[in-house]
Specification:
With about 140 residues, the protein is an alpha+beta fold. The chain has helices at about 1-10, 55-70, 75-85, 90-105, and strands at about 30-35, 35-40, 45-50, 50, 75, 115-120, 120-125, 130-135, 140. The chain starts with a helix and ends with a strand.
Length: about 140
């Protein structure tokens, strides 16, 4: 959503420096919990048992795309469009970022606790995800 706002500002010749993006403009802030992890999109943070897990920006975007579509297959081309929207990127880059993401999550090469590879198609986030509004005690469970 932020990317859409920034692009709209640029098209209207409004400098982002003169514009403050408030949390209310990007909708309700959610956190995603799975296993020992908590993904906080608004802060661009992944926590494991309360400790920050280092992720590159693209690995974070990749994880967020997968978690938001939890349980559903995301085709490789769709992931490439979401994570690298304004760039031509080869599929090998996706594989490299996916490997780094799996390492950060503690998955082995044959372990599919969080991310399942669907050969020649794409990827699926398979862990149970709990969704909560930031600052809320309400938790919603996704399949």
């Amino acid at each position: 959503m932020r990317r859409v706002v920034w692009k709209s500002l640029r098209r209207a010749n409004i400098s982002p420096k003169n514009f403050q993006l408030s949390p209310n403009m990007i909708g309700p802030q959610q956190t995603y919990e799975f296993g020992p992890f908590r993904l906080i999109p608004a802060e661009r943070q992944l926590l494991r048992d309360g400790e920050v897990v280092a992720l590159t920006p693209k690995a974070f975007d990749l994880l967020l795309a997968l978690v938001e579509q939890n349980g559903h297959l995301i085709e490789k081309d769709e992931l490439l469009k979401q994570v690298w929207p304004d760039s031509f990127v080869q599929e090998a880059n996706l594989s490299v970022k996916m490997s780094a993401l799996r390492r950060a999550l503690g998955e082995g090469s044959n372990d599919h606790q969080y991310i399942e590879t669907v050969p020649k198609r794409g990827y699926r986030f398979v862990a149970r995800v709990n969704v909560a509004a930031a600052g809320s005690s309400s938790v919603f469970q996704q399949q």
